[in-house]
Amino acid sequence: MAPSFARSISFPLSPSRSSTSSSGTKPRAGAAAAGSTAAAYHARSVSLPCRSHPILAHLHAHIGAVRAWAQDPPATSAPGAAAGLARVDALHGALADLLGLPEARAALSLSATGDRLLDAFLRLADAHGSFQEAVVELKRDGMRI
Q1: DSSP string covering 76-96, please?
Q2: Domain segments of the chain: what residues?
Q3: How confident is the model at residue 23 (pLDDT cuts 50, 70, 90)?
Q4: By C-alpha distance, which of 44, 39, 43 is closest to 17?
Q5: Is 126 exposed, middle or buried (0-12, 13-18, 19+ CB in 10 A)?
Q6: CA-CA distance, 138 to 115, in Å (whole number)?
Q7: How far apart are CA 76 and CA 91, in angstroms?
Q8: Which residues contact 12 (CB under 8 A, 6 or more apart)?
Q9: Using an 8 Å Cβ cutoff, are 118 and 108 in contact?
Q10: How far is CA 102 from CA 97, 108, 109, in A?
Q11: CA–CA dist 60, 70 (Å, integer)
């Protein structure tokens, strides 16, 4: 996907505004003459900064939620651990959504790094599944006691 760069052109200031600077004082004569043509017109890009993909923003929100949960002291309690697991699960879902985009698939299929990244993601998902099963077993054992 090729980005487009839109341009906008600023028009020169009105004569009453161009004779004074932003602080209200008159500019030096040499500086005004030297930069009058360059300062009269200038183009600037209106495409920067660009917005990121909504799925990427969603992923960043989930990363922030997991980091906030990890820094929270009562996260070691049973309800805190369940909330943390839910946040990690939502993070994995957001990452899966990002990797499911056609642009991500195309980028990953062209590089050797893509295979390593996908293998690491699968190991992470397997570890999360194993951890979640262990927490469920702990809950069952806790209910029996």
Answers
A1: GSHHHHHHHHHHHHHHHHHHH
A2: 7-45, 54-144
A3: very low
A4: 39
A5: exposed
A6: 35
A7: 19
A8: 18, 40, 41
A9: yes
A10: 10, 10, 10
A11: 15
DSSP state of 48: -
* Nearest-angstrom CA–CA distance, 116 and 108: 10
CA nearest to 136, candidates 98, 93, 101, 89: 89
Q: Which two tokens stand for residue 71?
A: 């820094």
Collect all residues with Cβ–Cβ distance below 8 Å to 116 and sequence separation of at least 6: none
pLDDT tens by residue, 37-93: 555 555 655 555 667 778 888 989 999 998 888 887 765 666 777 788 888 889 889
Three-class SS state of 47: coil
